[in-house]
Structures are given as C-alpha cells and as structure tokens.
TrEMBL record:
Belongs to the IS150/IS1296 orfA family. This is Insertion element IS150 protein InsJ-like helix-turn-helix domain-containing protein. The lineage of its organism: Bacteria, Pseudomonadati, Pseudomonadota, Betaproteobacteria, Neisseriales. Residues 19-65 form the Insertion element IS150 protein InsJ-like helix-turn-helix domain. It comes from Neisseria flavescens NRL30031/H210. It comes from the Bacteria.
Length: 127
C-alpha cells in the first residue's frame, strides 16, 4: 500500500526523510533511476545520493546531508528538547513525518524478514 508523501522540511532540507525513503523504495522496486526521478519530480543526482546513502547506512543515512564536520546523528533527532506542548506546529509536523517514515521502514523490514524466513523454510534441508 503506497504511503502518503509529504514534503515537510528536515534540517533545512527540501525533502523529508519520508519522501527520500519512498523514492529509494520505488527505485529498488522498479530499478530505473530515470523513471523514479520522473515519478517524484526530482533530479537523478538527488536520487543517486539517496540510494547510495540508504545502501551504505540504511534509513538513518537519509536523515541528514552527508558532511565531514557533521557529528554522529542521534537515533531520534526529536528527543525531547522541549515538551510537546511547547513545540511549534512545524516542529510537530516534522516529528510526525519522521515517525511515519520510521514506522514505514520498520514495516518494510518486518515484511522482508518474514519473506526471508518463509524462503528459508521452503528450502529442503541438507541433512
């Protein structure tokens, strides 16, 4: 089931983590950078960077632009700096987008794991 795509801003980025992740998944499914870039109205350069980042570091690598001076990013960039009721609407929307992408990633991971387990069970034993 396709997930709703949004373009909230993450760390001054034009594209959300969720958007980048969906574009990468689309590419991994159809294996065409040009068609994926056209589908999401993005450049192939952006897409290639996201694919490489995802393959090297998973969904977390899509979170920030790569930088040599960038400190190690936290697992959750929205760890309570301030209580939810003090956050702006934009901050809450960014956090929501991040959490939705994280849930989508975990669902995909679970589905792939289940698929692999079923594949392993279907193989005849070599004993």
């Amino acid at each position: 089931s396709p997930l709703q795509l949004t373009r909230c801003s993450f760390f001054m980025s034009k594209y959300t983590l969720h958007f980048k992740y969906q574009a990468v998944l689309h590419y991994l499914h159809i294996r065409s950078q040009q068609r994926t870039a056209d589908h999401y109205s993005i450049s192939r350069t952006h897409l290639r960077r996201w694919i490489r980042a995802y393959q090297e570091g998973g969904i977390g690598a899509l979170e920030h632009p790569q930088s040599k001076t960038m400190p190690q990013h936290r697992k959750n960039p929205f760890i309570a700096d301030k209580p939810d009721h003090e956050k702006t609407q934009a901050e809450l929307i960014e956090e929501l987008c991040y959490m939705r992408a994280k849930v989508a990633y975990l669902k995909e991971l679970k589905a792939l794991s289940k698929k692999q387990t079923e594949k392993d069970k279907a193989k005849p034993s070599k004993h």
